[in-house]
Amino acid sequence: MSFTVAIDGPAAAGKGTISRGVAAHFGFAHLDTGLLYRVVGAKMLDGMDPVEAARTLTASDLDRDGLRSAAAGQAASKVAVNAEVRAALVDFQRAFARRAGGAVLDGRDIGTVICPQAEVKLFVTASAEVRAMRRFRELVAAGEDVSPDQILADVRARDDRDMNRATAPLKPADDAVTLDTSEMDIATALAAAIAEIDSRRPATA
Ligand code: CDP
Ligand code: CDP
């Protein structure tokens, strides 16, 4: 039996951290769907047609170096406005969601478009300033030469593109539970997510 947890929200809200914790706690498989768009964005920067990159994407592409860079993130949010790119990535994500033993997928449109039937939908968010500071610390730790102002502008530009695109814009599903992590540490946010999932799991599972 499949059991799907959909975790959506803006950049650096804590989706990945919560998803990994949820996957470890329940033994679910985890797919960071942002990586799919990052792969397509990185291939576009290499000169490949993004629709072709999306159609030929395989699981091994997700191991590519440099996908976490700020440049790959920006390129990802640009290719993500393309409806043909998005359509080409749907089957890969839905097949993952149906895995036996449960799956957690995080992204922007998992609860709204990819898995509207997901048993649990969380919308993880935080203020743009908090998210920019989290992402800034991460990029500095990874050795990138960036400024806090530049990262805040980057987060805002991506929020704007993600929320205002015509196809699968970032927004909470009607039945999503919102988790604002602006003032939550990781342990508190993870505990809230686990409690929400527990409340929706079949008693026999
Ligand atoms: O996946 P997403 O871009 O939404 O965010 P993430 O990669 O899970 O988290 C971005 C950064 O914020 C990471 O360095 C996390 O450790 C940190 N974080 C935090 O400080 N407090 C939280 N409640 C959640 C994440
Ligand atoms: O880690 P962070 O939240 O900064 O970004 P990400 O999840 O890796 O996603 C990078 C970009 O891919 C986002 O800004 C979105 O434009 C796009 N994306 C999307 O459109 N749909 C998804 N399900 C996941 C990501």
UniProtKB/TrEMBL annotation:
CDD domains assigned = CMPK
- Main location per the UniProt record: cytoplasm
Which UniProt keywords are present, listed alphabetically?
ATP-binding, Cytoplasm, Kinase, Nucleotide-binding, Transferase
Q: Specify the enzyme's EC class, one word.
A: transferase
InterPro entries in the record, alphabetically? Cytidylate_kin (IPR003136), Cytidylate_kinase_dom (IPR011994), P-loop_NTPase (IPR027417)
Q: Which reaction does it catalyse?
A: dCMP + ATP = dCDP + ADP; CMP + ATP = CDP + ADP
According to the UniProt entry, what is the EC number of this protein? Answer: 2.7.4.25
Places the protein is found = Cytoplasm
Residue ranges of every copy of the Cytidylate kinase domain listed in the record = 5-52, 61-197
Please tell me where ATP binds in this chain: 9-17
GO function term, MF aspect, one = kinase activity
Q: Describe the family membership recorded for this protein in Swiss-Prot or TrEMBL.
A: Belongs to the cytidylate kinase family. Type 1 subfamily.
Protein's recorded name = Cytidylate kinase
Q: Which organism is it from?
A: Lutimaribacter marinistellae
- What are the leading ranks of the lineage? Bacteria, Pseudomonadati, Pseudomonadota, Alphaproteobacteria, Rhodobacterales
